[in-house]
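Long-time lurker. I teach an intro course on protein structure, and each term I like to show students one example going from raw sequence to a predicted 3D structure in token notation. This year I'd like something fresh instead of my usual example. Would anyone be willing to generate the tokens for the chain below so I can use it in lecture? Attribution to the forum is fine with me.
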Amino acid sequence: MSFVQRELPIKITFSSAVKRPKKLQQHIKRVWIAGPEDFMPEELELDADDVASGGVMLVEDLLLPEDCEVVDRRGNDPVVTVPKASKDKHHGRGRRDGHDDYDD
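-- Reply from a regular --
Happy to contribute to a lecture. Here you go:
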């Protein structure tokens, strides 16, 4: 069994149980992996259900195949960031809401 190093793309996935966030920033799109050639996938999937409502997932959160390891120096760097969902705050632009300038 021969060991190889490859740079693999990272695919961010969400299950159907969670709503995919509108805003998602993927910081790292590829990472170097070392392991047996027989178990080396074409791409890595990062299940991001835990951060669907906001949070950060790191390189160390990647699920790796058996006997594979990250050989990239970015072990603690964020792969994906999802901002916390905030309610849209419209400050009443153009609305008067009962504040009339004229008294009848």
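Some talking points for your students: The domain at 3-82 is CATH 2.170.120.20 (RNA Polymerase Alpha Subunit; Chain A, domain 2). The chain has one domain: 3-82.
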